[in-house]
What we know:
4 helices, alpha+beta, Photosynthetic Reaction Center, Chain H, domain 2
Amino acid sequence: MANLIPLSQLKADSSHNIGSDVFDPTDLPAYAGNDKVGTVRGALTEGGGKIRYLILDVGGWFSAKQVLVPVGLARIEDDGVYVDSMTRDQVKALSEYHEGQEYTADTQVADERVLRGSETIPSVTMPDGGYDYRDHDETDMMYKTPQKLQLLEERLQVNKQRAVAGSVEIGKRVETRTENVNVGLEHEELVIERTAVSEPRPVEGHVTLGDTAQTLRVDLEAETAQLNKQAFVTEEVEIGKRTVTEQQTLSDTVGREVLDVTRSGEVIVDGDTRTAAETTADATDDRDRTGQRR
């Protein structure tokens, strides 16, 4: 294979010390827009581990076909590799790659013409006969490994755990009060009736007053009341638990990383047409607003 070695071979060969920080895109899913194109099966390297091509299985578009995609056309994210600029027709026109085959300079030229959409492409031959990947040209990104800067931000995570918030003891106690009960009670009273004799009559026989003492005993009855207490069920209490959800607002301070671009000279960043002088003026205004020395 002309100057191109599979990344897997370099990693397996102990004679090539490429380091542990070399990015390996193998097995990442590949997307074009919202379509899943297929899967990255590996990479071809040149110059001691510099990735030049991604081996892309395009089974999502075409069955049983692998193509080589210049690494500069890929956008690498955490969830996969994106080749947004490639179309289905371009992938169809690319030469099919088989593992272990030599990817010749002529084939590279033909595929590059397909991807650039032009018959005219930059020079492709180096003085030593190798393929020219235009490392010296900062504007030609087709074969340069995309640089990725991750901007991080903090987000609040809420973890809930159950704990005993309190306890309730339920029992009984005796509470007393005084009640009055009206009861009708009967009793006997002695009734003495005296009747005067209108025509007195003599007592027969010899009678001396005071000789005979007579006493009459009369028992009088009366009802008495006795109080007895009887327990009655007046209320039943059932004990259970229920879950109630209440909304609480938790707050904390979080930070996020923002892109900070420093320009030197008349530099234009893609998507931003401001000049270095305008950027400096904006920065000066920012310092004025924060009260810092101009």
